[in-house]
Task: inverse folding
């Protein structure tokens, strides 16, 4: 039945739902992106430039913030941007700038029809941003394309070791979520509930579901792999593993492949744009989705080491993020890929680290959980959670406008939802959160001995 369901879902059920019932153009965009990936590098470069020129003109005419900001930078019209070098001279967009000017960054024609998300991101600076329906549908299409490079397709039996929201759905919403995931042939496992004592439950769940693909936060899956190896436990072998949320380091890749008996693929994205890059079957660097995004390296296109990534969504006309510095570092790859795709590559993602916090009962708290805790928090510019004792956490906060210490109760409740009340939580307000040597601001720092 598994072999029959995948083509049925891809060709009949999902098109009927997505294109027919929901009236979304996700599949049309997917066909477009699947076609464009085989263009030559020069053709893709020209396509990206046409999209970027269109967006620059739109921002100049329709988005008050950019017209004013770019005028201050010396622009007199959109025609001033004649090359990528001209675009690279425009000021870079940062989280503090977005927080200060969010309202004027919205194009008036799209104001009533935007979707909004909040992100804490791996840099610990909360941010609320908007995007259009087209942008959302294209992001989903790009994600489907990127996952398919590893052989993971729609309707394939897939297990997700992923983060669940702090406020889990209940009642009808829980039933709807389960029905939705069942239709997609997915099994969702909550990475935030994982502990040493419950590792056997996760192993058994995977063994019973028998996924063809596992998509997971890197940290929790690595911990599960260590547990399986220590305990001599063998489980069903998937066909592939896709790592997310953190960079997949060589030693982790080797461990996952050894324990699960399947190739492991690296992916890279962020909440602001979803999938930015992913490995293909060659597994020699991550293809950048440059027919969907404009990605720059702060040290220039010829950079040979870690460089700040600067990203532009080419299809978000509602609240465009132009030359947005997302806080991650990446090393470009200057080799052509043996797969034949013309999309350029990222050699690796550098300086993105979310430490797992540890609890006395053996549970691990992924850094991504802390990001979820802070999503509803307001009045905080930056945050970081530091662990020096098993039963205590220090929460560092950089206050923003509207900061009120009452927010401590919200943060404490969110953390205690997973850790229990036995963990003491102290708060410290600071002027800034120190960067790591690689230029990152870590959300979680575990200083306990290994």
Result:
């Amino acid at each position: 039945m598994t072999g029959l369901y995948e083509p049925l879902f891809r060709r009949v059920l999902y098109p009927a739902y997505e294109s027919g019932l929901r009236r979304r153009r996700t599949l049309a965009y997917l066909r477009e992106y699947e076609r464009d990936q085989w263009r030559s590098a020069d053709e893709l470069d020209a396509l990206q430039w046409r999209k970027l020129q269109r967006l620059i003109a739109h921002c100049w005419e329709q988005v008050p913030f950019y017209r004013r900001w770019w005028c201050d930078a010396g622009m007199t019209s959109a025609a001033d941007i004649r090359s990528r070098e001209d675009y690279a001279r425009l000021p870079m967009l940062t989280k503090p700038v977005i927080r200060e000017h969010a309202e004027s960054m919205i194009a008036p024609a799209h104001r009533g029809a935007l979707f909004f998300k909040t992100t804490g991101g791996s840099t610990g600076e909360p941010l609320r941003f908007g995007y259009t329906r087209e942008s959302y549908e294209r992001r989903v299409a790009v994600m489907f394309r990127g996952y398919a490079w590893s052989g993971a397709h729609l309707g394939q039996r897939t297990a997700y070791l992923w983060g669940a929201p702090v406020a889990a759905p209940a009642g009808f919403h829980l039933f709807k979520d389960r029905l939705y995931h069942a239709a997609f042939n997915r099994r969702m496992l909550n990475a935030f509930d994982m502990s040493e004592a419950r590792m056997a439950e996760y192993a058994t769940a995977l063994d019973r579901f028998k996924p063809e693909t596992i998509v997971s936060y890197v940290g929790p899956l690595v911990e599960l792999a260590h547990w399986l190896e220590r305990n001599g436990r063998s489980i069903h072998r998937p066909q592939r593993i896709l790592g997310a949320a953190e960079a997949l380091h060589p030693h982790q890749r080797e461990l996952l492949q050894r324990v699960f008996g399947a190739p492991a693929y690296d992916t890279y994205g962020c909440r602001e744009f979803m999938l930015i890059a992913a490995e293909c079957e060659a597994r020699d660097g991550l293809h950048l989705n440059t027919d969907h995004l404009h990605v720059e390296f702060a040290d220039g296109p010829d950079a040979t080491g870690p460089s700040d990534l600067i990203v532009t969504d080419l299809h978000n006309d509602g609240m465009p993020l132009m030359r947005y510095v997302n806080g991650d570092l990446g090393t470009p790859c200057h080799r052509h890929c043996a797969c034949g795709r013309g999309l350029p590559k990222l050699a690796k993602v550098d300086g993105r680290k979310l430490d797992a916090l540890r609890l006395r009962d053996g549970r691990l708290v992924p850094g991504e959980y802390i990001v979820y805790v802070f999503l509803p928090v307001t009045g905080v510019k930056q945050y970081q959670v530091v662990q020096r004792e098993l039963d205590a956490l220090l929460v560092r906060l950089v206050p923003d406008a509207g900061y009120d210490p009452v927010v401590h109760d919200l943060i404490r409740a969110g953390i205690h939802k997973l850790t229990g009340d036995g963990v003491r939580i102290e708060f410290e307000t600071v002027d800034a959160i120190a960067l790591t040597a690689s230029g990152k601001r870590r959300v979680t720092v575990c200083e306990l001995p290994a």
About this structure: The mean pLDDT is 92. Residues 279 and 286 are 4 Å apart (CA to CA).
